[in-house]
Design a protein that fits this description.
This protein is an alpha+beta fold. The protein has eight helices and 17 strands. The strands form two sheets. Strands 8, 9, 10, 11, 12, 13, 14, 15 and 16 form a nine-stranded mixed β-sheet that branches. Strands 1, 2, 3, 4, 5, 6, 7 and 17 form an eight-stranded antiparallel β-sheet that branches. It binds ligand PPE.
Length: about 300
């Protein structure tokens, strides 16, 4: 990762190297934090942050769900994110806000620990590599199941629960796959370690419902609107792993992953084994929307 000049911390811009914290910070020990991943894209009118307010609302909502106190509103955090992009002179970047608890309390009970907020940004190319984006990636179904709503809150981007994704990704990589797919406790597809999943069969798209345990991704929601407006039908329904084996096409969506084609699952080629026409169309619509080339979706962009 290539450092930039500033990181926003608790209301001010500090030098990248000075954005440090104490080893007894509560979040470091117990995972009591929430984070976001947001991208800014280069457009003709300068860097545009994609669905910034939606990301910040999800962040603050997740903190509330886990009872993590926050000293800033979603609007404050959106303003700060714009500042991070502009002060660092970034044209396009990945933005990482994190709400966390510092010192003041040890032991599980976080009451008394100091709430903090930080927003960093850096240049980040294709999440699963240029080849992955262009030619598709391989995935394997993980032996680890997606966190269940009876134990944690799958729809909040909390730091601690991401150990579930880390386990699945490391297992998949060790087995030679680019990414993992996690099933939920009922054995249906939930999502990737850091992406939502779509499949296409006979021209219709399918994606697991929010109650599958998947994070209801902002990219997923954007793709829903883009494809529906383009005349496609999308069904939110439980998917078994064989539904993906039989699918004509499959792809991942996520802020980092954008729209990444999946060409192989469990060492079985999906469709022709190459990104199909619906996947290509989705990539094209998404990349055009985020870079301000489609007037109908300009309200998704926030200029830094
Ligand atoms: N599911 C999970 C588990 C997830 O982490 C992400 C985002 C998504 C779905 C897609 O959500 P959205 O970005 O709102 O479309 N994963 C973030 C973290 C990636 C990382 O390696 O860190 C991201 O894409 O920023």
């Amino acid at each position: 990762m290539e450092p930039v000049k500033y990181i926003w911390m608790d209301g001010e811009l500090v030098d990248w190297d000075k954005a440090t914290l104490h080893v007894l910070s509560h979040t470091l020990h117990y995972g009591t934090g929430v984070f976001e991943g947001i991208r800014a894209y280069e457009t003709e009118q300068g860097p545009a942050i994609f669905r910034l307010d939606d990301h910040m609302r999800r962040l603050v909502r997740g903190a509330a769900a886990y009872n993590i106190p926050v000293n800033f509103s979603a609007e404050d955090l959106s303003k700060a994110a714009r500042e991070v992009v502009s002060s660092n002179g970034l044209e396009s970047c990945y933005i990482r806000p994190l709400l966390f608890l510092g010192t003041g309390s040890m032991g599980l009970n976080p009451v008394g620990a100091q709430p903090h907020a930080m927003i960093a940004a850096w240049r980040w190319g294709k999440y699963l590599g240029d080849a992955g984006f262009n030619e598709g990636i391989t995935v394997g179904v993980s032996s680890w199941r997606r966190i269940h709503q009876s134990s944690l809150i799958p729809d909040a981007k909390a730091t601690g629960p991401y150990l579930n994704s880390v386990l699945a990704l490391l297992e998949a990589n060790a087995a030679g796959f680019d990414e993992a797919i996690l099933l939920n406790m009922e054995g249906y597809i939930a999502e990737g370690s850091g992406e939502n999943l779509f499949a296409a069969s006979d021209g219709i798209l399918y994606t697991p419902p929010s109650h599958s345990g998947a994070l209801t991704g902002i990219t997923r929601d954007s793709v829903f609107r883009l494809l529906t407006d383009d005349g496609y039908e999308i069904r939110e329904t439980n998917l078994s792993r064989s539904d993906i084996y039989y699918a004509d096409e499959a792809f991942f969506t996520g802020t980092a992953a954008e729209v990444t084609p999946i060409r192989e699952i469990d060492r079985r080629a999906i469709g022709t084994g190459q990104p199909g026409p619906i996947t290509r169309r989705t990539q094209e619509l998404f990349m055009d929307a985020v870079t301000g080339k489609l007037d109908a979706y300009r309200d998704w962009l926030d200029y830094a």
